[in-house]
């Protein structure tokens, strides 16, 4: 242990008892197919990602987060410098536009950055996905130069200004105005009230020179709904805010302090007519409004397109960040002993406790489940791209529905999972140097931005209700995600499996999730219909809101979980019939993780699964018994498995999870190396002697 | 709105639409009996608490947490200064020893500090409860002076050194040694290995001059188990660490950075014989060991007595901190509008959404439930005090069992509740200035310290199994908390209520929780017995560990919830039969909150309640329908109710919950007033122009 050297500078402490390397021991318990698992994790992008990874490991600018204890201002300065380095090095490896047009590739290439520091990853998402994609999606040729300015000249840094102080979820009602002035051929942007100030805009307060701004377009006093404008914010030579704007900082946050979220107030701020992103709507010189999407709401939906891609990033990054946390917590669980048995010399490693397994192993199952699902959704997205701006596309609403649900589920699973990891590491998990608190605090906001989870679920519900209504009316419905919908009532049906083995079969587990989703869909539809029948004058929005709890909200979650189960199930079937080839241990581990994922989700909502006695008490026992058995059986696979999770040891930034297996050496070294470790309290004379 | 003044210094923004004061509107919807609710909240200690509160409001040293953005080192310095002020002013109001001998009084008197800054409250808990009480509990007359030195001369600051790097939950196995040297009549304290270093010791790294240190006592090489010693740490004139010690800082944490947790390494560190706290064990000059508690484990249990009182503080403070969070989230919910209805000018306040009610109202019910329960437990504790060190007492193991369970449940409820509050406030809940992140990050550790929740539950389970075994053997059992235990099997019993009304009766709800607890107790007992019968050679500790998940762990939680339900139920009965007198609205609100509390707990674990078909699908519908109805009915009471939660407006430190009702004015003022709000990024020339 290096630590002893440090201590011996003070005086000698007798050498510690040489301990068995437990991490090595657990690592060698299963022979997992690392290549196969890497392919699952990184798709085809591992090699290019590795090149970027090298930069973060080798460039001395990149100290680990837990080493730096920066003030908010310093964090920003250092953050932007790092972003520049990553950008410069990254574009040598992959051409930026190929990246942001392929979410899976963007995700994997961005992994080192994400794992290293979530705020820097956010900076990339804001400028690549929110800013660039908005220009790509909504702009025309003349607007492309604004992207090039960043990519080629690195002079522009863009931000995305949608949210206002008064409107976040309901951005349809933003209050910033853009009036057209035909005399000067300019738009005049205004912030009519405090509530209308742009708020939370990532990058706006200190770093961005330009923004895509959403504002209500007015022509001759008539509103044409929200439109998007390119709006310069700062003088690029002095970096001062341009006249006519007030820009300030939203202040300290619960996390992500590396990104400078700002507010923007416009006071008769003028921009040229060409700055309207005019792919779908245009204003002529004379002030005539033209549009290819006459429906104002559909037009708005199209304008929000880049948010969907943001959601895809959350779907993909959530399991990776949770994977990081589980890697920390499980390595710790393998190395940390606590409590012994009489007659045994050594205490028991935490990982041996069934309770500890039960707390952590289902999280690992979730990581795999969400990863597989994410990949599928990325495929669906790529497939849907050609239709993205076709108002008649059936794929677009569907991908919107499924990503809305999955964004919510994945981010909830990760948030709650990271917190469980922190708790499972006891006091040491509360150390900043465990990284678990950092992961949680930064991650938290994924539940809110790019659409608040509970609000997104309502959009999914709307899709499902629409599909069901269409089906009931006998319409033909094009769908990849809704084959499970039954037109006949499912209430009163019973699951017919009678043994644990039958219950655990993939087909059955899949059927169980289908049942719950059908039940909730039918119940929700019924409740809505009955309420409408009872009170014909009632406001449909009230009925909708009254049907959220236990109905539409639960339905959307159930739908998302069903989709995950379906993807995982399909994957396992491919393993079983050798469509996907791997070794025995890997097959066993993944199959058991599939079961564990399903069972722990059933257990968490057993009340609903038992509704209408679809499952019986005995099924409940199957579920619980199997969870325990599976955890026990998975023990030998779990460390080798989390070892394949990102990041590699050079980027692991947790003192409680050293790859060497030397837990206590790692802790002591980290703590001894922290700033001001040996110190009286500042100004101690003032505090103590004056008394 | 004041904000407009600030803005108008730059230029004019047209005045905001004058909005209805929604907070006032919701406040006036119910006529709650504030005096009655205050009594419930503060017991008899409101007036003295108010005096201390005044100090925090009036003394300019006390800037709010969200105003100060301090470095770790500054936070500590400022923290200890504030602690001194509170201490000085506080002792003028109440004599310190009356305080720390009465947990309820300590809690209420400490409320302003707790709400103001959790780390400062921790400092008080460490020195008053952990340090002082250890001396009181285990010391004899000669040791009292160490307390007086703090109280009278304010020269000593004490800390509590139990945990080591290698041992936190299993402190019975700590490795620090204390060998007696009869020649010099001294103990020699040593840290034999890295794992034995004292770790996490609150106050040790920078502020404490003395510690109570737990070490294995050796006489002539023979171990007598852990004992407690008074150990000087620093020279009080220079504040330097004394020779023979290494003391350092554990570093940055996920929260509570105001408290300086440190590690301590002892190298043949000598202390006088008298420094052994020798109430129960003594070492004579000659080196003879004497004890009044021959059993080494019982002796150790007694030595941990002050931790129990620490647990009481968590039981009492959890609902208060959650109360603070719900006050923030619900005020916000009343003032924040989002989404409208066609034909209505104004958007709908969040509090009107059933989904939002469902997310937050059960948390308010928990606050009340846990508060009532806490008060009861404090009474039991006071009642038990005279027997605290009587190894034959039946009350001591009982209070230990119930506080262990409640410490876990209360802290979990609060932690998860605070997080839900943050999420319910959307992006603004992610602002540091909402205070919700601060509350969560500091609170988190309550789940771990004073005994990790999952470990504590095992101690409760042990008590319950012992009681059941005694009962089965026909022994007479003295208990205040276990009257519900049935000797006859409950599996297969059914709840006989057939209407929602019947189901909701207090007696029935109470019976439902009794049933679950009996079921889990019987199942756990059975599982243990069967496992033992199956394999007579098995290690009982393995059997125990294998019976945690879904059994003993669930049992202990169920027992704690049952106790809460019982206390709340008793309280409601007193309201109903006018033993407690209050007005109609208050009665209605509290009765409905009682039902909501029970129902939301049933809903969360419906799977278990449905086991053996004790509850039917129809009961499940009762539960869900009633939750929704109750939320709707509670809407008019909820704001007036949270308004009675601590703190008062002068100490409210959340920009999203101003008492004035002017949500946006408050936000704008706060954000404008934060440090460096209008600023280019530091060293922007380096970052941007060099390109
Ligand atoms: C760190 C950070 C960075 C951000 N970056 C950007 C950025 O770069 N650009 C940008 O434009 N925006 C940005 N945002 C804003 C973000 O997109 C919004 O915070 C998010 O859309 C949620 O809106 P809100 O905060 O106004 O929440 P609200 O809409 O006020 O919602 C608050 C709560 O009410 C609930 N709720 C709302 N409506 C309903 C309903 N109808 N029924 C039931 N419940 C409801 C929600 O579930 C939520 O819990 C950022 C925010 C943060 C915190
Ligand atoms: C900020 C802070 C301040 C503190 N202040 C003090 C102080 O002033 N003085 C002091 O003496 N100590 C202090 N502590 C230490 C604290 O009391 C311990 O952290 C706590 O007792 C838990 O022990 P541990 O951290 O070693 O967790 P561990 O014992 O390592 O537990 C880790 C995890 O393993 C699980 N686990 C452990 N055993 C079992 C089992 N048998 N079965 C199933 N699961 C198990 C636990 O549930 C937990 O999730 C402090 C800690 C912190 C973080």
UniProtKB/TrEMBL annotation, chains A, B:
The active site is at 450 (proton acceptor). GO terms for cellular component: peroxisome. Its main location: other. The keyword Flavoprotein applies. Signal peptide: none annotated. Pfam families: ACOX, ACOX_C_alpha1, Acyl-CoA_dh_M. Residues 159-268 form the Acyl-CoA oxidase/dehydrogenase middle domain. Residues 305-465 form the Acyl-CoA oxidase C-alpha1 domain. InterPro entries: ACOX_C_alpha1 (IPR055060), Acyl-CoA_Oxase/DH_mid-dom (IPR006091), Acyl-CoA_Oxase/DH_mid-dom_sf (IPR046373), Acyl-CoA_oxidase (IPR012258), Acyl-CoA_oxidase_C (IPR002655), AcylCo_DH-like_C (IPR036250), AcylCoA_DH/ox_N_sf (IPR037069), AcylCoA_DH/oxidase_NM_dom_sf (IPR009100). Gene3D superfamilies: Acyl-CoA dehydrogenase/oxidase, N-terminal domain, Butyryl-CoA Dehydrogenase, subunit A, domain 2, Butyryl-CoA Dehydrogenase, subunit A, domain 3. Residues 507-687 form the Acyl-CoA oxidase C-terminal domain. Its cofactor is FAD. Keywords: FAD, Fatty acid metabolism, Flavoprotein, Lipid metabolism, Oxidoreductase, Peroxisome. It is found in: Peroxisome. FAD binds at residues 163, 202. One of its GO terms (biological process) is lipid homeostasis. The keyword Flavoprotein applies. GO terms for molecular function: acyl-CoA oxidase activity; FAD binding; fatty acid binding. Belongs to the acyl-CoA oxidase family. This is Acyl-coenzyme A oxidase. It comes from Stylonychia lemnae (Ciliate). The gene is Contig18415.g19562.
């Amino acid at each position: 242990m290096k630590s002893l050297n440090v201590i011996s500078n003070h005086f000698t402490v007798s050498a510690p008892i040489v301990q068995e390397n437990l991490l090595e021991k657990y690592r060698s318990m299963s022979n997992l197919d690392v290549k196969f698992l890497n392919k699952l994790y990184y798709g085809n992008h591992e090699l290019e990602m590795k090149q970027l990874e090298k930069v973060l490991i080798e460039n001395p600018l990149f100290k680990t987060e837990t080493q730096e204890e920066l003030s908010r201002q310093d964090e920003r300065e250092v953050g932007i410098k790092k972003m520049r380095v990553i950008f410069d090095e990254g574009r040598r490896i992959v051409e930026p536009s190929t990246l942001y047009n392929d979410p899976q590739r963007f995700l994997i290439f961005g992994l080192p950055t994400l794992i290293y520091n979530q705020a820097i990853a956010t900076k990339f998402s804001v400028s690549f996905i929110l800013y660039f994609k908005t220009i790509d999606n909504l702009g025309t040729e003349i607007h492309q130069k604004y992207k090039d300015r960043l990519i080629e000249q690195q002079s522009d840094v863009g931000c995305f200004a949608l949210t206002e102080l008064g409107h976040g979820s309901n951005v349809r009602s933003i209050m910033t105005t853009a009036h057209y002035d035909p005399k000067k051929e300019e738009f005049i942007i205004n912030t009519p009230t405090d509530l209308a100030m742009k708020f939370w805009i990532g990058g706006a307060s200190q770093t961005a020179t330009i923004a895509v701004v959403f504002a209500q377009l007015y022509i001759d006093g008539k509103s044409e709904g929200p439109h998007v404008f390119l709006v310069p914010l700062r003088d690029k030579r002095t970096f001062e805010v341009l006249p006519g704007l007030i820009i300030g900082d939203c202040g300290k946050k619960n996390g992500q302090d590396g990104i400078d979220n700002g507010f923007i107030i416009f006071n008769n701020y003028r921009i040229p007519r060409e700055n309207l992103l005019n792919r779908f709507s245009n204003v002529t010189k004379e002030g005539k409004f033209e549009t290819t999407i006459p429906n104002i709401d559909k037009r708005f939906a199209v304008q929000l397109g880049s948010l969907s891609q943001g959601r895809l990033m959350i779907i993909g990054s959530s399991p990776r960040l949770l994977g990081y946390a589980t890697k920390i917590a499980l390595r710790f669980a393998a190395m940390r002993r606590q409590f012994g048995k009489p007659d045994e010399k050594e205490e028991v490693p935490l990982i041996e406790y069934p309770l500890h397994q039960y707390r952590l192993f289902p999280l690992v199952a979730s990581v795999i489940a969400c990863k597989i699902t994410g990949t599928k959704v990325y495929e669906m997205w790529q497939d849907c791209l050609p239709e993205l701006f076709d108002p008649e596309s059936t794929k677009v609403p569907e991908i919107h529905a499924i990503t809305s649900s999955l964004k919510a589920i994945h981010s909830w699973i990760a948030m709650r999972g990271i917190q469980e990891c922190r708790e499972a590491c006891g006091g040491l998990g509360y150390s900043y140097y465990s990284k678990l608190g950092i992961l949680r605090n930064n991650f938290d906001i994924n539940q809110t931005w790019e659409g608040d989870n509970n609000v997104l679920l309502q959009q999914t519900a709307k899709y499902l209700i629409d599909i069901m209504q269409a089906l009931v009316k006998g319409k033909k419905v094009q769908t990849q995600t809704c084959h499970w919908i039954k037109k006949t009532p499912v209430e009163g049906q019973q699951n017919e499996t009678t043994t644990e083995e039958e219950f655990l079969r993939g087909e059955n587990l899949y059927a169980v999730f289908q049942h719950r989703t059908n039940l909730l869909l039918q119940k929700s539809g019924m409740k809505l219909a009955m309420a409408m029948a009872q009170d014909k004058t009632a406001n449909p929005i009230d009925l909708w809101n009254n049907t959220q709890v236990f109905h539409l909200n639960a339905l959307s979650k159930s739908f998302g979980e069903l989709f995950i189960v379906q993807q995982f199930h399909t994957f396992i079937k491919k393993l079983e019939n050798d469509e996907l080839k791997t070794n025995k241990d890997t097959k066993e581990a993944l199959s058991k993780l599939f079961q564990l994922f399903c069972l722990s989700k059933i257990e968490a909502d057993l009340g609903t699964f038992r509704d209408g006695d679809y499952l019986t008490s005995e099924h409940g026992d199957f579920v619980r018994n199997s969870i325990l058995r599976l955890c026990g059986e998975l023990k030998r696979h779990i460390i080798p498995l989390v070892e394949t999770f990102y990041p590699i040891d050079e980027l692991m930034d947790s003192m409680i999870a050293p790859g060497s297996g030397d837990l206590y050496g790692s802790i002591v070294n980290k703590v001894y190396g922290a700033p001001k470790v040996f110190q009286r309290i500042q100004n101690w004379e003032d505090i103590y002697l004056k008394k």
